[in-house]
Amino acid sequence: MDLRSGIPYWRLINRSHVCYPVLDQDLACEIVIVGGGITGALAANQMSREGLDIVLLDKRDIGSGSTAACTGLLQYETDVELADLVAKVGQNSAVRSYQLGAEAINTVRGITATLGDDCGFANRMSLYLASKSSHLPKLRREFEVRKQFGFDVAFLDELELRERFSLRGRGAILSRPAAQVDPLRFTQQLVAASAARGARVFEQSSVKEIHWDEAGVLLTMQNGPRVRAKCILFAAGYETLDYLDHKVGRLHSTFAVASAPVRDANEQTNQCLIWETARPYCYLRNTVDERIIIGGMDTEFENDHTQLSMIPKQTKRLEHRFRELCPGRRLEVAAAWAGIFGDTDDGLAYIGHSPEHPQAYFALGYGGNGITFGVVAAQILTDLYMGRPNPDAHIFRFGR
To answer: Which fold has domain 20-69+184-248+347-396?
Structure first.
């Protein structure tokens, strides 16, 4: 594969695409979902299984926004370490949010098994490296906290990292479960399954105006048609912030590269999702077609991802970090791209009703856990709509 800059790897390997129509007539439904990325797809899948009448809208092609730039890591750990999260949100909420992440990985495993097509799902381990010697005490504290609450973890020293994984590091936490998935293919298959159950899906269909009233919500599309629904679910990623006056997250640019196929790697290393204690952190993993994906080198500027001149610069930095982590290994870059992501003070998603729009549902996943948070959001929001109690909804509530 020739070097491609600015095109996410998943867009290069997922060339087949089921086309959905542009919305060109007025419709009515129970729930209209705005956003056809991984979060909207998971919500549509869950709600259509409940027999709910769904309309799914995306202003682009399905999965072609931030989902196509996602690198497909599935980890229960959030970007805020459990020890720190306990201090921020309390022990019960912190531990439960980590448990929900582990449950979400198992849920994705189960969903992919039912889709009848290869979504690139593979079970993995998570390897959390100390970026510096000075990070070791905090890393050991994190290990002890996770162990205390029953998570499957082991602590590896510098020698074990080198001998077992051929990695350079001062120490690491090895944890299970973890997994990886092809995010674009997974999204496409989820939407196809929802459509087969009766969900109505529309691409290239942009919302111009939203009006709330006693009957629910009325959407007017850019090309004129309207959608009347009992409620709306916003799953448009960072673009959802346009509908909130009170900003609940910060936006950053992030970068990633995919290598040409590599066959000289340590087999144990191939079974790991690797990330580090530095903030912002770098991470890497192997794909099922034997490529290496390494990402990170985040910037504080949300528009940097649109600057193609930034991609070669950040690619060189990612290559350098790869050589530091994996001495003696070569990385031949085949694709390089950039994206945008959000984070929050506590590293948790915002899921549920916003005080600004009590008739709307929001699914705002942040940080490195967008897919697992999407699984959690699908269940919570389905329960809320169906009037069922969900004991975990309060963890991700607005105004927490």
So the answer is: FAD/NAD(P)-binding domain (3.50.50)
